[in-house]
Amino acid sequence: MQLNSLGFPRIGRFRELKFALEKYWRGEIEQSQLTDISRDLRKSHWQWQADAGVKLLPVGDFAFYDQVLTLSATLGAIPERHRGDAGIDIDTLFRVGRGRAPTGNDAPAAEMTKFFNTNYHYIVPELTADQTFEIGYDQLFEEVSEVQALGYQAKPVILGPVSFLYLSKSVGSDFDRLSLLPQLLETYQKILTRFNSQGVEWIQLDEPVLALELESDWQAAISQTYTALTEGDLKVLLASYYGSIAHQHSLVSKLPVAGLHLDLVTAPQQLSTFVATLGQEQVLSAGVINGRNVWAADLDNIAAQLSSVARDLKQRLWLAPSCSLLHSPVDLEVETALSPVLKQQLSFAKQKLTELSKLKILLNDADSVEAKAIVVECRSRRSARAEAANQQVIARVTALTEQDYERDDLFAVRQAAQRQKFRLPLLPTTTIGSFPQTLAIRGLRSRWRKGEISLEQYNDQLRQVTRDTVERQLKLGIDVLVHGEAERNDMVEYFGEQLDGVGFTQFGWVQSYGSRCVKPPLIYGDVSRPAAMTVQWAEFAQSLTDKPVKGMLTGPVTILHWSFAREDISREQIATQIGLAIRDEVVELQNAGIGIIQIDEPAFREGLPLKKSDWQHYLNWAVNAFKLSAAGVTNETQIHTHMCYSEFNETIAAIAAMDADVITIETSRSRMELLNAFEDFNYPNEIGPGVYDIHSPNTPTVDEIVSLMQKAAQKVPVEQLWVNPDCGLKTRTWDEVEPALVNLVAATKILRRTLS
């Protein structure tokens, strides 16, 4: 019985990769130093997996920016604007991902969006109708040699051809991306042949599209692909995750693959379906440890569910996480500040490998002393969870009525009241919320957390930063201001630290994209708000100007999705609890004189089930959670929300049902393509399409912003439009932000003259 690792986090337990990347981008280290740090990280991660008992070590889970982008480079599928004279190298990846690298010319970055229903962002491959593929980048092959030189067996892990095409976008002209499959398969075959020549025995091809409700042409592509790619000596492990693939059983069970990986965390019921038709020599990789959450597994229950399968399959049963551990923090051992009661409930990536080892013990020798100790440990954790209920929160949720979810009047009535109150010009300008988190701000926060300065000194300095941020916006001529969020470490963690029922870690970092990492809170109990969280900062900022200053909150659905949430109650129940906590804050902001309040929901679409037939239930409760948070205010209070990197076409009715007065969205990288959904639906409320790609250091020109907004005005009535960046400005520097906003305001003045 083998242990199978589908992939490991690459950032390092202290974010070593993040800091190395950013130093390289700033010119503080050479590329050779970046690659040395990366090599050391891979060595440590392989060693940990080997020590846990994993024999086939994953290669291909490491990426300098994104593993999908690495595959695009391997296939030679890099946009012409990002290519340099030296061919495809590390800097090419950075030009594609962020629009800039230490070498080569700046160019607009490629589009970035969420990887299925996760908070991980991938760089969308751009494919043309005459696209050719050829091995053009050797990182994967070099890493196979690297792990072999350490004395280990390599198992390359790459995205399968069908998922690669599915996640790509057509550029230049609209065409059937499946028309590229034959030539793409030829290049995949060359890749597999090269791995075979390196002595590789197994390769893992990931096809998460199998969890979707695929149309017949995409199903046929799966059959064609795995008939072609299993003809050689290399053994193929076909992996799918994030949902059940039982609806694809008749297709998948006929594929001539050597092994199959199933996500048995999200869909345990599919186990019996596939075991019944497993080939006599086929391996089953059972994904029974949750790769997307941090709660320690109930190993005794898992062992009971797997016991008969283990007896039947013996060595053909592999024990695995449900998916790559990319979505998990790295190492629980470095968490020294967690309470022992909470810490015993947790398991990070390194510990999840140990859980696999313990599960193997339970399955192999359930009567051993070691196995009995594991069972006692599991029962102790379950008992501790049951004691954490907050009856007051539970009673408040139970008492909710339909009216608690609705504003007093329809949008048209509210809009008239808000326009009378605020007297904003045509095309009001605003930003999404955060301004640069400078080294000085981060250093200040670090000194406060270490006890080197008092809370009063810390807040005094933050007030000065806030004052400076407001003054800069006034000088720029922004119409609706924000306070800049200097006091916030993260848009979710900040709230998690102030809510009851929520804990947080020191080093529980997870990669979101590139060098961007987030530290999700731990929702371990019933959630409530013991005190105001943002009111003092909003009041202070508003006292500095007569212009409106937005109160800035993170919405309940996003707090849920960007946290590690408890698993003993439904996500709907958790979202409702958080919605009530945010509602309390919204009402208190209004009562403090804050007339515009933004409740961000960038993760709204992320929570969609992979199967469309399951969408409506999710959309119903997600919309209700947002409406609950916003519905306690008067008509004059203007509610904004923000969403980024979302495909809106299929969820536009739900977004309209949220009934936010203003929605701001990311549209600059898509060149306003995302607005098609709002045009086709005839979206009734106001919209701020982003015109400044904040994920790139490049400065948008006045002409570019004018052009984008002119496109927007062709899709949405100009009276409904706002002008704003794509997202918050936290990750940028003032040297980048101010010129961009100067251009944004200048472009808006031109647009007011030409579009009025």
UniProtKB/TrEMBL annotation:
GO BP terms in the entry: methionine biosynthetic process; methylation
Query: Which metal ions or organic cofactors does this protein require, according to UniProt?
Result: Zn(2+)
Where does this protein hold 5-methyltetrahydropteroyltri-L-glutamate? R15, E16, L17, K18, K114, N119, R516, C517, W562, E606
Catalytic positions?
H695
Q: Where does Zn(2+) bind?
A: H642, C644, E666, C727
- Give residues annotated as binding L-methionine: I432, G433, S434, E485, D600
> Protein name, please?
5-methyltetrahydropteroyltriglutamate--homocysteine methyltransferase
| Cross-referenced InterPro entries | Cbl-indep_Met_Synth_N, Cobalamin-indep_Met_synthase, Met_Synth_C/arc, UROD/MetE-like_sf
EC number(s): the record gives 2.1.1.14
Q: Which reaction does it catalyse?
A: 5-methyltetrahydropteroyltri-L-glutamate + L-homocysteine = tetrahydropteroyltri-L-glutamate + L-methionine
List the Gene3D superfamilies: 3.20.20.210
